[in-house]
Amino acid sequence: MAKTCEVTVNPGNNTLKVEAGDNLLKILQGAEYDLQADCGGQGTCGRCQVKIEKGEDFSYSGELLSADRLEEGFRLACQLEVEGDLEITIPESSLLTGQQILVGSEEEDNYLESKEISGRPREINPLVRKKSLKLSSPSLQDNTADLDRIYRELTGESGFTDYRLELDLVRELPELLRENDWKIELQQADLLTHQEIIEVSSTEAGSSYGLAVDIGTTTVVAALLDLEDGSEVGRRGEYNRQSRYGEDVISRINYASKNEKGVQEVNQALIETINELIAELLSREDIDTEQIKMLMMAGNTTMVHTLMGADPNNIRRSPFVPNFFMPPVFKAEELGLKVLPQAPVYCFPAVGSFVGGDITSGILASRLHSQEDITMLIDIGTNGEIVVGNQSLLIGCSASAGPAFEGGGISCGIRAMEGAIEQVNFDADYNFQYRTIGNVPPRGVCGSGLIELLATMQQRGIINRSGRYNRELGSDRLRQREDETYEFLLVPAEETDIGEDLVFAENDIKHLLRSKGAVYAGIKIMLDRLSLEEQMLEKVFIAGGFGNYLNIEASIRIGLLPDLPRERFEFIGNSSLKGARRAVLSGEAFKESLELASKMTYLELSSDENSKDFMDEFVAAQFIPHTNLSLFPSLEDNDSQEEE
């Protein structure tokens, strides 16, 4: 029999009984402690730190923490196996708390929709519709069967139709019809391949609702919509609980494929996240779970695979062929979603392994496929998804930016959460000035802050165009590391919330240059394949949670975005959720997304045809802003004016 141990977790003095040999990170995750584990528990991100307060009976294999940190009692939970009783403290900085989630608002989305429809009244025609029927009662002269009587009312014909009805509902019909004097209310669902009656009830049934869900890698946002008048009842956002298995999609795919129950674990984490959002939305209104009659999901290819409980492993392996681009319409009960059991779950179609349904939804929201001018949609995250086109053509690609824009792999990097530095500057003596989310002591620098930091440092001459520090800077904040590279002290330990120096190292700069280089190279390759120049882009839509907080000027200065007139850039927020909202209220809009996805060309940057050109562009883009300065003429003009 395995030895039983006790792990006491603080804050909270919560005691967990575990078996000797269990991994501490898995223990804590199983007890609903959501630690940051960007690397999926591989011991390479250093986010899941805990402090050992009592007990020495454990085995530890981590090599990432400094000697000083180890001396203080800190360990990586993912690299520690419990062998005896322990008491630990989880620092707040190790938890997925206070994360900034781009939820948006109904007013913002309605404004975008009002521009799309040019003042015409919005038509509400959802894929799931309520119909009230008053059937004629049977007689010796009209002995049509109960079910056929419904079919006749719906289609004008009785007998065989393309409608389907669940067996349980067929069994309930005789009593329901007669108890309600042949007056009933039904929910009719267009499942794309056929029509189905998903619910039959008395005419006293309440309102019907649809749920639009943006399944992001980092966060999940849901909006609850009234299917009759189109109003939004509420919206909520929460971090994706899958984050405990890795920060990016590749980490989660690796976790799912390498662990015995990995696929089920990442699936359950996502289902729990969505169900929590549903519960939060319904708790604010007098709405029953079964009043939600449909769900519309927009997510990248990996997220939709994990939603379905499908193994995503082939997505990351050449030739990068997923299980599906357009999943079938499933019932909510099949996926474990706590709404009307028969409610259909629709998903936006993907066009490639790394250009998913969230991008298709974003195109629908932005109306890029209806534009006359050449337009670009870009969603920057761990992957930079890019679409270029107009009403005549659409081409999309995904450039692997890595986790740097989410703070991953950066010494001082964290996600956009409370305590994250989001705006930066330097005074004349190179003293670091900053503003944090929540105006609290800093815990790190988030992605938008890192872009400003890189741009400002280069502009002030602290680093050169290749990302190396100016050794002659004359500031004691610049210091040499053991490996003879340099780092810049941003905030000393005593001023931070984590008790550690926040530093920005040359290796961090390299990570960021690789990330921005991948995105810009993707843009260049796309335009080159279409024989277009950057200046031909009349509009650039910037989507997503990270993109919404981008400083355009800083992004152009480092060479992340093309050098265009600034008025051509437009933030459209959570375009994935906007498209999903639109598709909930309009079946035609959802079918339009199916058509546009089928017409889009997917450019695989890692293919033999494209990989060499992409690598050339990628290398050229790893300078600030680029090796070819003529691509950024406005920066040359600004720098010349500053020198004068």
Question: Can you put this structure into words, describing what you see?
Answer:
This protein is an alpha/beta fold and 644 residues long. The protein folds into 5 domains: 91 residues, Roll (Ubiquitin-like (UB roll)), CATH 3.10.20; 74 residues, Ubiquitin-like (UB roll); 139 residues, Nucleotidyltransferase, domain 5 (2-Layer Sandwich); 166 residues, Nucleotidyltransferase, domain 5, CATH 3.30.420; 105 residues, no CATH class. It has 17 helices and 29 strands. The protein is globular.
Summarize the topology.
Blueprint lengths: L3 E7 L3 E6 L4 H7 L18 E6 L3 E3 L6 H5 L2 E3 L3 E3 L3 E4 L16 H11 L11 E7 L11 H10 L7 E3 L1 H13 L3 E8 L4 E7 L7 E7 L3 E8 L5 E8 L9 H10 L3 H22 L8 E8 L1 H8 L21 E2 H4 L8 E4 L9 H10 L8 E6 L2 E7 L4 E7 L19 E7 L5 E5 L7 E2 L1 H13 L18 E3 L5 E6 L10 E4 H24 L9 E5 L8 H6 L11 E5 L1 H11 L1 H13 L1 E2 L5 H13 L12 H11 L1
Parallel strand pairs: 1-7, 9-11, 12-15, 15-17, 18-27, 20-29, 21-23, 27-28
Antiparallel strand pairs: 1-2, 3-5, 3-7, 4-6, 8-10, 10-11, 12-13, 13-14, 16-17, 18-19, 19-20, 21-22, 24-25, 25-26
